Amino acid sequence: MDAFSVSVANGLKEPHMRPAKRFCIAGVFGLFQFLMPMTGWICVSTIAARFSAFQKITPWVALVLLLFLGIKMIVEAVKKGGRNDPEAQDRDTEISIGMLLVQGIATSIDALSVGFVIANYKLSEALVSTLIIGIVTFGLCLPGILIGRKFGEKLKNRAEIIGGIILIIIGLEIFIKSFF
User: Fold this and answer.
1) What range does the domain containing 47 cover?
2) Among 75, 107, 115, 168, which has the highest number of CB atoms less than 10 A from its own CB?
């Protein structure tokens, strides 16, 4: 659901996104949601003692990354608010590959713990389980982007601010959930 929410934020940020880019974004989120639990499974299967210390900092990493991205989106939207050059505004709203990769990591880093839960699975069972997670994530992200695009066109300049706020809230939610 974190990846879905960030997909909505991406649709808000870039309402005129091409179909190929929508599939790319959903694919990146699906890929990371597949890779992180598999990484957790591999780590538990091989270096569990060392990796358990990292589990404690994953909510902090997600919080910092999503706060950074959310604040960056809000600042860019506020800066852009005073400009009248539509071409420059379109360039500023495009989601870069770097930003997308950071989003993919931030929204899936808590999925590392899924690897701990499935640690007793055989490799084939772990692959099938994490593949299902990736496919479902992909399937949820596509409509998320479309929802964001629809509202992004209506909200215009406020869409990026709303998207930034969504990212910040997701970061806080991941962080707060780690205490319960």
Assistant:
1) 2-177
2) 107
Domain count, the chain: 1
pTM exceeds cut of 0.85: no
The per-type count for the chain, helices as H runs and strands as E runs, is 7, 0
pLDDT tens-digit series, residues 64-117: 888 888 888 788 778 876 554 555 455 556 788 888 998 898 888 878 778 877
Q: What CA–CA distance (Å, rounded) separates 39 from 143?
A: 27
Closest CA to 69 of 152, 13, 140, 135: 13
Please state, in angstroms and rounded to a whole number, the distance separating the CA atoms of residues 28 and 7. 11
- Tell me the DSSP string of 66-117: HHHHHHHHHHHHHHHTT---HHHHHHHHPPPHHHHHHHHHHHHGGGHHHHHH
